Amino acid sequence: MNEHTMRQYDVELDGVRTRVLQMGGYVEQQVVGALAGFMEGDMVLIERVIENDHHVNELEVEMDEVCNQIIARRQPTAKDLRTIMSISKVVTDLERIGDEAKKIAKVARTLYQNEPSGRPRTQLKHLGVQAIEQLRKSLDAMARMDMDAAAEVVREDHELDVEFKAVTRQLITYMMEDARTISRGIDILFAAKAFERIGDHAKNIAEYTIFLVRGRDVRHIGVHEVLKEVGHPDAS
């Protein structure tokens, strides 16, 4: 591969990284919109999030095609192939986050159509904000190729899980106290689970960032081992 071709190749890889981060920004806005629609009952915003999900799907298809073309034309080395495959996996997680945002918006639409003047009895705002922050941090860690920041996302995922369990307990209490709240409670629980899943996907993105930098697959090895892998001070 001559120098000119190598420069073109580097430009292509940089372009793919930029595009996946742009997709991440768009998906983040979908989640922000879903949370706002859920908390405020803004039907215009809710419908916009649902409608815009098709654009997230289009971005996934486009990114997959770009990655496949690079592999076919460039026959990348092991390191570059690792980059392309990691980006492809990040794209999949982003598309699934988009799906979760759509689910939240659909739940919000159902809740406010059935009870226009109501507000969710269980406040999901804190859970939603945590999920959005996890996503934002994971994308920022990927943009900067920052293993320490990525490890923090992996560690903080536990806090999101704890919040989800607290919301679940609260909802179960409501439903046990008043059977009339069961249908509504199940809908809200469905939205809460979607936020929890967004956190899981953000964690995946952080783990792919560590893989990109280190070449080490840190999925399924436990938080302490992840921190050790990146040399985090809390691992000692």
What does this structure look like?
It contains seven helices and no strands. It has 236 residues and is mainly α. The chain has a single domain (3-235), classed as Up-down Bundle (Methane Monooxygenase Hydroxylase, Chain G, domain 1), CATH 1.20.58. Helix 1 (3-40) runs antiparallel to helix 2, helix 2 packs antiparallel against helix 3 (78-114) and helix 5 packs antiparallel against helix 6 (182-214). It is elongated, with a radius of gyration of 20 Å.
Structural key phrases:
0% strand; Methane Monooxygenase Hydroxylase, Chain G, domain 1; 84% helix; 236 residues; mainly alpha; single chain
Write the layout of secondary structure elements.
Layout: H1 3-40, H2 43-74, H3 78-114, H4 125-144, H5 147-177, H6 182-214, H7 223-229
What are the low-pLDDT stretches, counting only 5+ consecutive residues below 50?
Answer: none
* Mean of all residue-level pLDDT scores: 87
Helicity, as a percent range: over 70%
Total beta strands: 0
Identify the CATH homologous superfamily.
Phosphate transport system protein phou homolog 2, domain 2
The end-to-end distance, rounded to whole angstroms, is 44 Å
Helix tally equals 7
Q: SSE string, helix = H, strand = E?
A: HHHHHHH
Secondary structural class: mainly alpha
Shape: elongated
Whole-number radius of gyration? 20 Å
Largest sheet: none
Question: How many domain regions?
Answer: 1
State the CATH class.
Answer: Mainly Alpha
CATH topology: Methane Monooxygenase Hydroxylase, Chain G, domain 1
Percent range for β-strand residues = under 5%
* CATH structural architecture: Up-down Bundle
